[in-house]
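Late entry, 2-acetamido-2-deoxy-beta-D-glucopyranose complex.
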Amino acid sequence: MFDIAPEFGALLVFIEHRFYGESMPFGDGPYSSPDTLGYLTSTQALADFAVLITSLKQNLSAVDAPVVVFGGSYGGMLAAWFRLKYPHVAMGAVASSAPILQFDDITPWSSFYDAVSQDFKSESPNCFSVIKAVWDVLDDRGFNHTGLLELSKTFRACKTVQSADSLSNWLWNAFTYTAMVDYPTPANFMMNLPAYPVKEMCKIIDSFPAGADVVDKAFAAASLYYNYTGDQKCFQVEGDDDPHDLDGWGWQACTEMVMPMTVSNESMFPPDSFNYENMSEDCLLYYGVRPRMHWITTEYGGHKIDKVLKKFGSNIIFSNGMRDPWSRGGVLKNISSSIIALVTEKGAHHLDLRSATKDDPDWVVEQRRQEVEIIRGWIDQYNKDIEQMWQ
Ligand SMILES: *[C@@H]1O[C@H](CO)[C@@H](O)[C@H](O)[C@H]1NC(C)=O
Ligand SMILES: *[C@@H]1O[C@H](CO)[C@@H](O)[C@H](O)[C@H]1NC(C)=O
Ligand SMILES: *[C@@H]1O[C@H](CO)[C@@H](O)[C@H](O)[C@H]1NC(C)=O
Ligand SMILES: *[C@@H]1O[C@H](CO)[C@@H](O)[C@H](O)[C@H]1NC(C)=O
Ligand SMILES: *[C@@H]1O[C@H](CO)[C@@H](O)[C@H](O)[C@H]1NC(C)=O
Ligand SMILES: *[C@@H]1O[C@H](CO)[C@@H](O)[C@H](O)[C@H]1NC(C)=O
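Prediction complete; structure with ligand written out below:
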């Protein structure tokens, strides 16, 4: 999407979210106290954007210039919410892979992991079955120290792992993130990966003899994610994820970004449940706060979004690729003539925002073309309205 700035004669402004990157208001973290982290909220971040954009336009003597906000993932949610909260600051928003309906009970809680599983199942039922079978095997073998030693070798772990859960998490992350970034061209978003990496993972699994060990198969598939470039000597399976090494998202997830998720028995992951009390206790333990479980839908809405936005909103593109599990919590239907859902069957996590490449399939090229056409329509209308205002 950065590509399209020149044809609009647009100034590109990338605003960093408070408490991420270099925008640390209290100096370098880690912050562990609610006294400082309390200032890390989406509401405050949106207000930052409004202040910055307004000030920048004044300084550039361009107060009437149209502003369109763009974002992907959480950034996509912010883009959509910004348009709703600050319609006088941004006249349009492109919200790519923005799961603004992943809150409360708006979207079925199991849909995320069902979608991940569907990606794998649709490539190869065998691939799906192998992955589904691996978790119990890991649990059994990782039960005692001898087993963990063996498994650590199989997983080429840099250090002997302390529990089979670490191995499960390591595999789990590889499969989930690969589904998210199942792009049609080679990419380096989370990791360096080939085109259609889910298909490549399943090819690896399917190339084993049927009787081979499921752990070997699953490990080889996950290696595509962690070691596609071939430069890993060993794997940091257990990493150094100290729960007290707090990052911004963990805090946000424990305060306002409460996205309930479960794992159904139809999925390829071990079934799992969700309950609010349990989560509340965990958050109290880690961060000393209890989540505001339903704040997001109170603050920004989400329930009956089609009816609400049809009457109230305008100029938002919600784009989603159905290969991306986050698409299930996105807006997948057109709401009005200017609140448009663009859905691609084979798209992945904010694919449309990525730079164009010569290998892009036609449907991505078409999606991006359509977005440009819609944005141009908004701007033309905006300029007409401004002109009339001065007459
Ligand atoms: C606009 O100019 C004022 C005065 O020089 C400055 O304080 C402010 O930071 C500028 N705003 C932006 C967004 O650059
Ligand atoms: C560890 O568990 C395996 C079965 O998973 C068993 O065969 C083996 O004897 C156990 N080793 C020890 C030292 O308990
Ligand atoms: C990573 O891939 C390279 C090349 O295939 C291989 O030599 C190396 O052993 C792999 N690393 C691990 C930890 O498996
Ligand atoms: C899956 O879960 C559903 C509902 O929770 C239950 O009715 C069904 O028997 C389960 N299926 C299997 C194979 O466990
Ligand atoms: C969370 O739920 C599990 C069972 O689902 C239970 O074993 C655990 O103790 C609970 N944790 C808290 C903090 O309530
Ligand atoms: C929404 O409308 C646009 C045309 O304005 C169309 O191209 C698109 O396919 C529609 N989206 C859905 C999900 O039907």
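The chain has two domains: 2-104+295-389, 111-254+261-274. Will revisit in the morning.
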